[in-house]
Amino acid sequence: MSVAVIETQNLTKQYGPQKAVDNVTFNVYEGEIFGLLGPNGAGKTTIILMLLGLTEPTSGRARVLGVDPTRDAIKVKGMIGYMPENVGFYNDMNAIQSLKFIGELNGIPKDILQERIESALKTVGLDQDAKKKIGAYSRGMRQRLAIAELLIKEPKVAFLDEPTLGLDPDATSRVIELIETLRKEKNMTIVLCSHYLEMVQKLCNRVAIMIKGKMVAQGEIEKLAREKFGIGQEEYTLEEIYMRYFMEA
C-alpha cells in the first residue's frame, strides 16, 4: 500500500446530543479513488467539511497530506480541490473568465495560469465552448467546468461530492472518464461521494459505508462481499453489498 494522504482517527462531530460523525477511523492512500457511501444524513459531507477545515471535530484527529485541517485550514485548502454537490458559478462569465478568476483567487501566477486554463479546458472538452456564457451551459458542461477548476489548481487530493447528480447517461459517462483521467494522468487522490453505486464500483479502489454517523464497513468491494455473503462463485454488485449493510444497521 502506498503513502496515506488522508488519515482520520476516532473522528467525531457532535451537534448537541446528535452525533453527525461517530468515532470514524480510516485512511486514503496516494493515487487511489476512495468511495464514501451512505444515505442522506449519514455523515459523509460532515467528514469532508472536517477534512477541508470548514468545521472542527468535537473529538478525534484528522490529517490531510500530513497537515491538521483544524489548525492550518488555509494550507490544506491550498493543496486540495473540492467539488461540492451544487457548484456555483457567475452565469455572466464565460469559462475562461471563470477559471481566471479562480486562478487569481488561488494566487496562481499569470504566465502559468493561462497555460493551465487552456490545458484544463481541453482536458474537460470545453475548449470549443470556452467563450460561451456559463448561464447557457447544460448541467453536464457545468460539472466539467467544475473539474477544470480542480485542474488549474493542480491539487494532490480532490473531494468530489455527487459529481454526476442530475446528469443524463452521456454526460455521466464523460464525467466518469474525466475522473479516471485525474487519477491515471495526474496521480490525483480522490474521495468520491455518490449515490450512483455503479459508478463507484467502476472507479473506486476501496469504499467505506456510512450509516447514522458510523462507518460500518470499509475495504475493497470483493472483501466486503466475502464478509456479507461468504466465499462462493457468484459476483455481487456494490448495490447488493450496500443494501445488506444498510438493512443490518
Key terms:
24% strand; 9 strands; globular; three-stranded antiparallel beta sheet; single chain; Rossmann fold; six-stranded mixed beta sheet; 249 residues; alpha/beta; 9 helices
Topology (elements, then pairings):
Layout lengths: L3 E12 L2 E12 L3 E5 L6 H9 L6 E6 L8 H7 E4 L11 H11 L4 H14 L15 H15 L3 E5 L7 H18 L2 E5 L3 H7 L2 E6 L2 E6 L1 H9 L8 H11 L1
Parallel strand pairs: 3-7, 3-8, 5-6, 6-7
Antiparallel strand pairs: 1-2, 1-4, 8-9
Helix pairs in contact: 3-4, 3-5, 4-5, 5-6, 8-9
Structural summary, described in words:
This protein has 249 residues and is of the alpha/beta class. It has one domain (4-248): 3-Layer(aba) Sandwich (Rossmann fold), CATH 3.40.50. The chain is 41% helix and 24% strand. It is built from 9 helices and 9 strands. It has helices at residues 44-52, 73-79, 95-105, 110-123, 139-153, 169-186, 197-203, 221-229, 238-248; strands spanning 4-15, 18-29, 33-37, 59-64, 80-83, 157-161, 189-193, 206-211, 214-219. The strands form 2 sheets. Strands 5-6-7-3-8-9 form a 6-stranded mixed β-sheet, sandwiched between helices. Strands 2-1-4 form a 3-stranded antiparallel β-sheet, with helices on one face. A hairpin with a 2-residue loop joins strand 8 and strand 9. The protein starts with a strand and ends with a helix.
The CATH superfamily title = P-loop containing nucleotide triphosphate hydrolases
Q: For the terminal residues, how far apart are their CA atoms?
A: 29 Å
The fold-level CATH name is Rossmann fold
Overall structural class, as computed from helix and strand content, comes to alpha/beta
